[in-house]
Specification:
The complex is a heterodimer of chains A (251) and B (453).
Chain A lengths: L9 E5 L4 H11 L5 E6 L3 H12 L4 E5 L8 H10 L5 E4 L7 H4 L3 H29 L3 E5 L12 H21 L5 E7 L2 E2 L13 E2 H14 L3 E4 L3 H10 L2 H6 L3
Parallel strand pairs in A: 1-2, 1-4, 2-3, 4-5, 5-6, 6-9, 7-8
Helix pairs in contact in A: 1-7, 3-5, 5-6
Chain B lengths: L5 E6 L8 E7 L3 H9 L6 E4 L15 E4 L6 E5 L4 E5 L4 H8 L4 E2 L11 H6 L7 H4 L6 E7 L5 E4 L5 H7 L8 E8 L1 E2 L4 E9 L2 H11 L5 E6 L11 E8 L7 H4 L11 E2 L11 H14 L3 E8 H5 L5 E2 L10 E9 L3 H14 L6 E6 L13 E9 L4 H14 L3 E2 L9 H7 L3 H11 L8 H5 L3
Parallel strand pairs in B: 2-4, 3-4, 15-17
Antiparallel strand pairs in B: 1-2, 5-6, 6-10, 7-11, 8-9, 8-10, 12-14, 12-16, 13-14, 13-19, 18-20, 18-21, 19-20
Helix pairs in contact in B: 10-11
The chains are: A alpha/beta (251), B alpha+beta (453).
Amino acid sequence: MMDAVGDVQRVLVLGGTSEIGLAVLRRLAGRRRPAAVLAGRPTDRLDAVAAELRAEGHDVDLVHFDAEDRRTWAPAVEKAFAGGDVDVVVVAFGILGDAERAWQDPDDAAALATVNYTAPVTMGVDVAARLRTQGHGALVVLSSVAGQRPRRSNFAYGSTKAGLDAFYTGLREALRPEGIRVVVVRPGFVRTKMTQGMPAAPLAVDADRVAEAAVSGLRSGREVVWAPPPMRYVAFVLRLLPAPLFRRLPV
Amino acid sequence: MAPVTSTRRLLAGWGQTSPTVAEFVAATSESDVRATVEDAGPRGVLARGLGRSYGDSAQNGGGTVLDMTGLSRILSIDATTGEVTAEAGVSLDTLVRVLLPLGLFVPVLPGTRQVTLGGAIAADIHGKNHHVEGSFGNHVAAMDLLLADGSVRSLTPQTEPELFWATVGGMGLTGVVLRATLVAKPVESAYFLVDTERTRDLDDLMARLQANDDEYTYSVAWIDLVARGASTGRAVLTRGWSARADQLPRRLRSRPLHFAPRTRLTAPALFPSGLLNKATIAAFNEAFYRRAPREERGAVQGIGQFFHPLDAVANWNRVYGPRGFLQYQFVMPFGAEDAMRTAVERLSAAGTASFLAVLKRFGPGNPGLLSFPTPGWTLALDIPVTPELGRLLDDLDDLVLSAGGRLYLAKDSRTTAEALHRMYPRIDEWRRVRDRVDPHRVFTSDQAKRLSL
């Protein structure tokens, strides 16, 4: 259970090597060291992250799943909760994909939709059921400003985030009476390995800034968190722009 | 037996900080309690009274919570011995009202009368008279405890000292108290003779308490934690005795045992949280200090004024707004005055806005294995939740630990299992008793899970 001052005891990161997911875990930790369950593909990178966290003093459990393989989703959630109550679940996995192939190659489009939408939605349903059973808990889900008004340059990715955002925004309302909180995090351009090599957009932030905003939102009871915070006004304006104008924007 | 109906309900402590959902069962009989305990699922069951513990002591997320307030009958009163036997869900408020006309008074009253008999035992609550009369468990002659297997054990400190003293202060984790016998104390009036003094600073306060606290039955000091510098820890000290009938002014003498608390006001559900800020709290503290007489002897005060100024406003906890607040209370042994001074200085320096921080001298503790009071100084304060609060309190935990002190479970909502176990040296003894009567941990709470009790 998240205690009176927002400290937690056990955190599940779906997407255990996600830089933002791990930054959220570390921000939640503060001076204490909550147990961490890292869920992801069985890679050297996941093992390395686990070793790093153990060195920092966390108890770490690993749970393997592949966002492209539906058969692995439910068992991963089950295993993650088998070790005890989970106070915060961070839904942090996703891919950027190849924007041009994703709207021209059906396999690419399907993979993007599966990893960024179908998997987190399906797993979210399982997670929500378990949080209801334990009577407490919170979800932090990494959406994106890209889902606010998908642009020509990466609309396939944007569409998955738009769907994900809509699902978790609704889930937030469904879980509210149960005392379970869902915080939807909408970052703009984040400098991570996922965006490496891409020119940074205006208002770019690093993973820790996103995590800081997410955790402060979680602790203060906000439902939607923008990173950086002024991004909400940018998104507001972008949503209102008429299409002929929007299409001319350099972003 | 008909199944007991339950509803899913979001439950929080008085501080409103960490609500969780449980199956809420309103018990009205012993058989309801037994059926609920026997039907408890894997996430267990816990008895809850009036929900005045501040943190997560009386909630059990995903499990069952037994509402005991429907079991509130007074079963017998012996006016000569003062022994009163009642069901566990009766409130101390009811007991005060029923006992006073008989010339009897509840032997230990905390800062509110809105707590149940069962809860008072579970938290082994204390009041302003701890330094001379001990905590609640000292005045319990007997109780009936429903165990995890559904059996009922009658406990007295003489016949079953182990389980009795594991239940006093045991936070409801040994079983459900069904009934208890309390030994009320004789009084001649419903009034108190009160001496009030203002102290310059913390040292002045502690010196006065050390000098002559034991001459008073009741004693507590309110500290202004907003004051800094030379005035750090300035306080208003109020101490007194239960008044004899012949000590009352003429107008009260005809009905010395009359007790009629004022109608309760209710704080609005959505209290604008911005109203409570450093400026308003500083003003409140300044006014509280200035309003108190520099020195006054023998003032006559009623129960409400002397014990429970906040009971006049129902749901006063709402004034802290939707983010809630917590109460931090610790005790440090005599001899740790320097650590106490450091704690007060840190709290003042941190600018944690607080109404009504109180300091009191505790007397000897009782054999309760998890009972909080131990000889020394106890400080309690309300703090609205702010982002940096966790770190400040973790640091204070370290200070409390190194001074050989401890935190109060009925108030705690954020310490760690490790710290708590170090604060209570008899916790392993307590766990052995608990494991004997409840090996499968049928009785549990969010706090018990958080602190590995």
